[in-house]
UniProtKB/TrEMBL annotation:
This is Sodium/potassium-transporting ATPase subunit beta-1-interacting protein. The chain crosses the membrane at residues 37-55, 62-85, 147-166. It is a multi-pass membrane protein. GO terms for cellular component: plasma membrane.
């Protein structure tokens, strides 16, 4: 069996990135998280560009893909810090993920594993066109789910960058071989390459 080359490995990791990004995009759409939706869209485009550059030997596309991986790792590191409320970041005060347009939280807040959602009626904390809920019994709180999702994205990005390093973007050259037995008579002298018809060239 043939050994998988560096280009094959890079394409495989790009496909894993693409699947993970599409899965994340779905849940961000369900939670109206506009900032992650925009970032995921750009990431999907960059990964497709990386796959195309790998297959077609386009070094410029791979350079753009590598530059995006740096930004993508930084963005996911910020998401981890945001949901774990590192430093001065606070989910109750900062609505960065929705561009401060709504109070929506992560979709996993109400739909996490084992979560029981109970509406709080007649609450004074409820704003106009909003309702207050109580979420209990979650096996894993949504900040940790979002942090694990971002950690997975960082892992895939780093492994892709490692696979990107030894990738050769030089297009292999075709070797032309002359088969004199097909173009000349038996026992005759093989003519010079310039005299051979093009039908005698084997790629």
């Amino acid at each position: 069996m043939g050994k998988c080359s560096g280009r094959c490995t890079l394409v495989a990791f790009c496909c894993l990135q693409l699947v993970a990004a599409l899965e994340r995009q779905i849940f961000d759409f369900l939670g109206y998280q506009w900032a992650p939706i925009l970032a995921n869209f750009l990431h999907i485009m960059a990964v497709i560009l990386g796959i195309f550059g790998t297959v077609q030997y386009r070094s410029r596309y791979l350079i753009l893909y590598a530059a995006w991986l740096v930004l993508w790792v930084g963005w996911n590191a910020f998401i981890i810090c945001f949901y774990l409320e590192v430093g001065q970041l606070s989910q109750d005060r900062d609505f960065i993920m929705t561009f401060n347009t709504s109070l929506h939280r992560s979709w996993w807040m109400e739909n996490g594993p084992g979560c029981l959602v109970t509406p709080v009626l007649n609450s004074r904390l409820a704003l106009e066109d909003h309702h207050v809920i109580s979420v209990t019994g979650c096996l894993l709180d949504y900040p940790y789910i979002e942090a694990l999702s971002s950690a997975l994205q960082i892992f895939l990005a780093l492994t892709s960058s490692v696979a990107l390093t030894p990738t050769d973007t030089r297009r292999p050259r075709r070797r032309r071989i002359y088969n004199c037995s097909l173009c000349t008579r038996r026992g005759s002298f093989c003519p010079a390459p310039i005299q051979l018809p093009r039908a005698c060239w084997l790629d």
